[in-house]
Amino acid sequence: MAVFSCMLIIFLCFPFLKFISVATAQKHVCDNGKGNYTANSTYSTNLNNLLSTLYSNTQINYGFYNFSYAHNTDTVNAIGLCRGDVESDKCRSCLKNSTLDIKQRCPNQKKAIMWSDLCMLRYSNETMFHKMETFPGYYWWNLENVTEPDQFSQVLGNLMKTLRGIAASGDSRRKYAAAENSTNFQNVYGAVQCTPDLSHQQCNQCLEGAISEIPTCCNGKVGGRVLRPSCNIRFETYSFYGTPTTLDPVPESPPPSTNTISSQESGNTTIIVIAVVVPTVVVVVVLLICLFLCLRRRKARKNLAGKSCEVKEQDDEDEDEIKIADSLHFSFDTIRVATEDFSDSKKLGQGGFGAVYRGRLPNGQIIAVKRLSRDSGQGDTEFKNEVLLVVKLQHRNLVRLLGFCLEGRERLLIYEFVPNKSLDYFIFDPAVKAQLDWEKRYKIIRGIARGLLYLHEDSQLRIIHRDLKASNILLDEEMNPKIADFGMARLVLMDQTQVNTNRIVGTYGYMAPEYAMHGQFSVKSDVYSFGVLILEIVSGQKNSGISNGESMEDLLSFAWRNWKEGKAVNIVDPSLNSSSRNEMLRCLHIGLLCVQENLVDRPTMASIILMLNSHSLSLPIPAEPAFYFNNRTRSFPEMQSWEYNSRGTGSREAILKSAQESENEASITELYPR
C-alpha cells in the first residue's frame, strides 16, 4: 500500500513519468523538436545506411562507434556505446536490435536515443561528437532502502569519486570504470561510463553532474542509475558487472566497467521508475556545470602551462608526451568518417610520407589531415618530430595543429584547413598572380618574417624549418601567410649557432650553400630560404629559371645581374603597380642580403623585421649571392635537387632528384583545396 501511495503521488505530481517493468528495462526518446523525415527521403536512406554500417563494423572491438553519413547534404550522426564487459559480437547484436526497435518506436523523428541492457544507441541530424550532453536525463532507482543511509552515502560517494577519475582518464576507445567498496555492514558496487569521444575534462564534468544527482533520485536506496546521453552511472549492493573485454595494448586503457540495468534484484520486489529531470533541476544542474567548467578550465590552463615547459629528448619520453595530450587526440574512426574513408576525391596532395586529405568534423569544421604511409621507413619518426614540435608552436603565421591520431599503425596529423591554397599557386600563375597586389605581397613577406622570428627566437624552443618554400606557405581567407609542414624541422639548443648533419634534406633553389654541400644548418639557413622567397614574391618568378632570350637564367643570377647594372626595376613583376616601387626595391635589397654566400653576412630575422618596418634604416650593400649562375663550381648540374646522405657502410652517396621536390621524401605536401 505504501509503495502504491508513493507511485500515485509521483504520478499526480509528474504526469509525464512512465513506469516500466524489470523485464523490459529499456528506454527510448523520440525528439519531435528536431524535425521529421519521410520514409523515402534522403535522410531516411542516409540513416539506414549509417545504422547498418554501425552494427556491421567488425574492425572495432572496443564497443564504441561514432559515425556520420552524408549524401546530398542530409547528414546523419550516430553513436553506439556498449557495456565494457560485452564481447564484440554481442555488442553488434545489441546495436542491431536497438536499431530495429528505435526505428519502430521513432519512425520519422530525426533525433532519437535508446538505452537498453547491453548498449546505448543515439542518432541525430545535429552535431553530437566531442560534445557533452546531459539532456534528456533519467533516473532509475530501487525502492528498497539501505539500513545505514549516512554510512552508505559516504562510502558510495567515495567510490563514485574514485571511479569518475579512472573513467575520465580513459582513451578514445573507452572511458569506463567499475569497482566495489566493502564496509563492515554492506558492500557497494559501482560503475561509471562516458562516451569516449569526450575529453578528460568533459567526461569528468558529466560524471560529476550525474553523481551529484544521486541524493535527488536515489538517496538511501540500495540501487540506482542516472542516465545521460554522454555519460551514465550505476550503483547496487550486489555485483552487476562481468569481466571487461580486453583492449589492444596501444594505447593503454583504464579499467573497464559496465553500464546495465539488471533483471536480477536479489529476490526483492522492485519497481523501476523512469523520471524526466524536471526543468528546475535541469537549470540548477546547468548552472553547477558552468561553475565547474570555469574552475576546471582555469586549472587545466595551469596544468597545460606546466606540461609545456617539459622538453623530453628520448623517444620513449616523446611517446609519453604524446599520450598525455588527451585534448588533442582524435579517434581514427572520427577522422575516417570526416574524410569519407580517405576518399581520393578528398585528397589535397601527396608527399613521400603520405597524403593530405580535406575533411569535415561533425561540428562542421573543415580540417586538413595528413595520413602517414604505413610502409614508410621513417613515418613514425617523422610523425613524432612534427607532433612534438608543432604542438608547442602557437603563432598566427604558423599553421595550427588541431590534433593527432596515434592508434595501432595509423599516424594522423589534423591541421586547420587554410582555404586559399599555397603561395606558389598565386605568384607563379600568370592568370592568378594579379590577385596579389603589392599590398598583399608585402603583408605576406612580413607575415613569413614574423613566423620565422617566432621559430628562431620567440618560441619555447629554437626551431629551424629546413624546407621553407613557396608551396609551404599557405594563405588564409584574408591572405595572411601561414608557414606549414614541420616534418623536416630541427630543434637546436638556444646557444647553438650551427649544427651538422649527414642527411641533407630540402628543396634545391631554397637551400643554403653550407647546408647543401656540407650539411651545416642554422637559423641562417632559413634566412637564405626566406631571401629566395622574397625574390620570388617581388618578381613573380620561380627560382629555378627565367627565360632570357633563348637561354634560361636562375632567379638569383637574374636578380644580381640587374641589381649590379642598376636595373633592379627589371626584377619587379610587371603586373604590379609602380606606386610602391621604392618599397619593392627595398624588399629586393633585403632579399639579396639574405642569400649571401657567407652566412655571417646574412641578417637575422630580428634585423629583417626591423628593415621591413623602418624604411629610414640604411641597408648594407649586398655582395654576389651564393650559387651565382656564372660560378659553375658552386652550382648544381641541370637545376636538379640534391640529397647527400650517409648510407649503411658509412660511405657517402650523392642522389639527384627532380627540381622543386622535397628531399628525403619527407612529409612535405602541397595543400591544394578542391
TrEMBL record:
The chain crosses the membrane at residues 271-295. ATP binds at residue 370. It comes from the Eukaryota. It is a single-pass membrane protein. One of its GO terms (molecular function) is protein serine/threonine kinase activity. It catalyses: L-seryl-[protein] + ATP = O-phospho-L-seryl-[protein] + ADP + H(+); L-threonyl-[protein] + ATP = O-phospho-L-threonyl-[protein] + ADP + H(+). PANTHER family: CYSTEINE-RICH RECEPTOR-LIKE PROTEIN KINASE 29, RECEPTOR-LIKE SERINE/THREONINE-PROTEIN KINASE SD1-8. CDD domains: Gnk2-like, STKc_IRAK. Keywords: ATP-binding, Glycoprotein, Kinase, Membrane, Nucleotide-binding, Phosphoprotein, Receptor, Repeat, Serine/threonine-protein kinase, Signal, Transferase, Transmembrane, Transmembrane helix. Residues 1-25 form the signal peptide. It comes from Vigna unguiculata. This is Serine/threonine-protein kinase PBS1. Residues 25-128, 134-240 form the Gnk2-homologous domain. It is found in: Membrane. Its main location: membrane.
